[in-house]
Recover the amino acids of this structure.
């Protein structure tokens, strides 16, 4: 359910200021100075960049810290259903999404401080993050980068407790560059001199080298996946290893083998930030972690009732080829354990490599239903998206909506209960959760 006060403030901002990103820190720095530089008055900050896995790392980091009894602020972006999801304020027993009145008041104060100067809405809302987090007590802060790193509005944190760089791959090429080493250099921009750095599992040796060289040049203690820490599956358990030894843990609640590496990066990051993590705490965190819209089992709701009886429905907002690979691997694991025919319902926006995303599912998916992404002006038309899926070697057809795709599958499929993945865009994931009546809380 939309809470209107903050939405009205944001709609007002959008009518005054340009959409998109400003690849500099001048405007956000000017605004924050007028607010008293709240970014300099925060508890220890875990700052997370990367192409894929940022949100999962933030979720694991939050679960780890809250399992120790600590109070944690969390900023993530984008949101799925409501803007409030971007701001989780610390509370005893676990953080809570910011209350609408508190959120609206912070937006109004930041907008007033800006005095009508040229700025983007994302920069104003980032300033809101720092204002809220400085005014409410907490033991730690987790901040996810919005775009890139070097010029992202969150990159005004001068001394993070730890900077984390999750897997780097091609995405947002028009902003960050068309080679993985260029993108890695942009992500590495959040690394600060002398501050600890955790480098998550990297598929690209070139990207890894850029990140390591940046940490060395800035004289940062660096902890590299595969060298200083790692995680692996053994007998259905997760084994985490670093210089302190081994921890035999419950497997992460988030599905997919890639989540072992994401969880490992979070454990390494929280420890590098100066927090002690016991075996008991880590085990509790693996069992309790949640991250909506990322390989999420779709809760029972209005949409699930339209699907074939007994269908296993998953939702994932991954939208680039790297995300396609890890999601396809997660589904292949499920297929090994519990075979079911797999169908894909997908919507994407035109800034993404659609064929590259679909190629990851070749040989795994029986059929693709392509749908428009109603919440984005950049939605790829569903008939065009079906062509991209066919180019990637998949069987596909355009359908007008997720609801209609589910009903069409229900009415035409006469085999065993299928597994259904709804994916391709965070905008689509948010629309599905809203239509299903199960928004993040």
């Amino acid at each position: 359910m939309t809470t209107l006060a903050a939405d009205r403030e944001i709609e007002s901002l959008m009518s005054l200021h340009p959409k998109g990103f400003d690849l500099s820190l001048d405007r956000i720095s000017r605004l924050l100075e007028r607010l008293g530089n709240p970014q300099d008055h925060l508890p220890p900050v875990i700052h997370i960049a990367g192409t894929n896995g940022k949100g999962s790392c933030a979720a694991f980091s939050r679960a780890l810290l809250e399992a120790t009894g600590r109070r944690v602020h969390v900023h993530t972006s984008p949101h799925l259903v409501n803007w409030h999801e971007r701001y989780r304020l610390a509370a005893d027993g676990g953080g809570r999404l910011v209350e609408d009145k508190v959120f609206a008041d912070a937006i109004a104060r930041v907008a007033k401080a800006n005095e009508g100067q040229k700025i983007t809405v994302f920069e104003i809302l980032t300033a809101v993050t720092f204002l809220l987090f400085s005014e409410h007590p907490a033991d730690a802060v987790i901040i996810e980068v919005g775009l890139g790193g070097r010029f992202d509005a969150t990159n005004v944190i001068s001394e993070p407790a730890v900077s984390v760089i999750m897997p780097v791959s091609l995405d947002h090429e028009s902003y960050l560059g068309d080679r993985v080493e260029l993108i890695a250099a942009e992500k590495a921009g959040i690394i600060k001199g002398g501050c600890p750095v955790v480098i998550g599992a990297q598929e690209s040796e070139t990207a890894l080298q850029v990140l390591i060289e940046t940490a060395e040049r800035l004289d940062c203690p660096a902890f590299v996946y595969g060298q200083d820490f790692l995680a692996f599956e053994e007998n259905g358990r997760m084994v985490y290893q670093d210089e302190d030894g081994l921890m035999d843990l419950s497997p992460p609640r988030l599905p997919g083998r890639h989540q072992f590496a994401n969880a490992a990066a979070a454990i390494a990051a929280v420890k590098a930030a100066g927090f002690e993590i016991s075996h008991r705490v880590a085990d509790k965190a693996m069992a309790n972690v949640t991250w909506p819209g990322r390989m999420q089992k779709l809760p029972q709701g209005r949409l699930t009732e339209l699907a074939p009886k007994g269908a296993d429905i998953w939702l994932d907002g991954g939208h680039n080829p790297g995300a396609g690979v890890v999601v396809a691997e997660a589904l292949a694991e499920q297929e090994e354990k519990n075979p079911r025919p797999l169908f894909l319902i997908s919507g994407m926006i035109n800034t993404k490599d659609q064929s590259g995303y679909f190629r990851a599912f070749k040989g795994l998916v029986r059929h693709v239903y392509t749908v428009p992404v109603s919440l984005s002006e950049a939605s790829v038309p569903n008939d065009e998206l079906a062509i991209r899926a066919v180019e990637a070697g998949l069987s596909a057809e355009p359908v007008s909506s997720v609801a209609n795709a589910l009903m069409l599958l229900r009415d035409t499929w006469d085999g065993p209960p299928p597994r259904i993945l709804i994916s391709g865009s965070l905008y689509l994931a948010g629309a599905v959760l809203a239509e299903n009546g199960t928004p993040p809380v």
Q: What stands out?
A: The radius of gyration is 21 Å. The mean pLDDT is 93. The CA atoms of residues 238 and 251 lie 5 Å apart.
